[in-house]
Amino acid sequence: MGTAGVRTALPVEFARLREVELASDMMFADMVFPPGSVLDGIDATHTVLAAGSPPIGFIVIGSLGPDLHVHQLSVDPAHGRRGVGSVLLEAAVAEAVVPVTLTTFAHVPWNEPWYLARGFERFDSGGWSPELRELVAGERAAGLDDLGPRVVLRRPAQSVDQGVRRYPDDRRAGFATFALGA
Question: Where in the chain are the domains?
């Protein structure tokens, strides 16, 4: 079904999305995250996409200066390693005509390496927009750097003629026919 199972999340689903986020955070057993949910800070400038019904994963994206920014990508660990995160990410950013940025932990195998395999690259602070600098400073102030090394990643904009990218593990997940919630 490809990205057809990805849809705009409904506000009534936000309680479930918070559960997914918390369950996903539990994979970081040795880390204690600041209280709250990324969903607590979103507004009309953000888009929340969900996978499955009831949702088993979600992504929050929004404009951040000149770029699109991935604020959160969470998948319920009970549904992990089945391509749900890949489908959500691709649905959210595949047709972005501006670069896509995100911040993540460098030392966690399913974070930086996972994004690098999907076309993201480390993004040097010399190229950061003021808005991205402010976001990184806010994450530091919240104590995220104390939990482990953080990196900023960036995926170049897709040109209109490039179309949707496919990555090696998308074949593993059966990207073109992936059925969410299976």
Answer: 2-177
Ordered DSSP codes for 26-46: TTSTT--PPSS-GGGG--TTE
- The sign of the CA dihedral 34, 37, 43, 49 is positive
Long-range contacts of 103-106 (CB under 8 A, 24+ apart): 103/135, 103/136, 103/139, 103/150, 103/151, 103/152, 103/153, 104/150, 104/151, 104/153, 105/147, 105/148, 105/149, 105/150, 105/151, 106/148, 106/149, 106/150, 106/151
Please answer whether residues 136 and 127 qualify as being in contact, where contact means their C-beta atoms are separated by less than 8 angstroms: no
Whole-number Å distance between alpha carbons of 138 and 37: 15
The model's pTM is 0.81
Dihedral sign computed on CA atoms, order 111, 114, 115, 116: positive
The model's pLDDT over 87-111, given as tens digits with 9 standing for 90+, comes to 999 999 987 899 999 999 888 877 8
CATH number for the segment(s) 2-177: 3.40.630.30
Alpha-carbon distance of 165 to 177, in angstroms, equals 15
CA gap 74, 23 in Å, rounded: 9
Q: Alpha-carbon distance 175 to 180, whole Å?
A: 10
Banded pLDDT at 67 (limits 50, 70, 90): very high
CB atoms within 10 A of CB 20: 25
3-class SS of residue 83 = coil
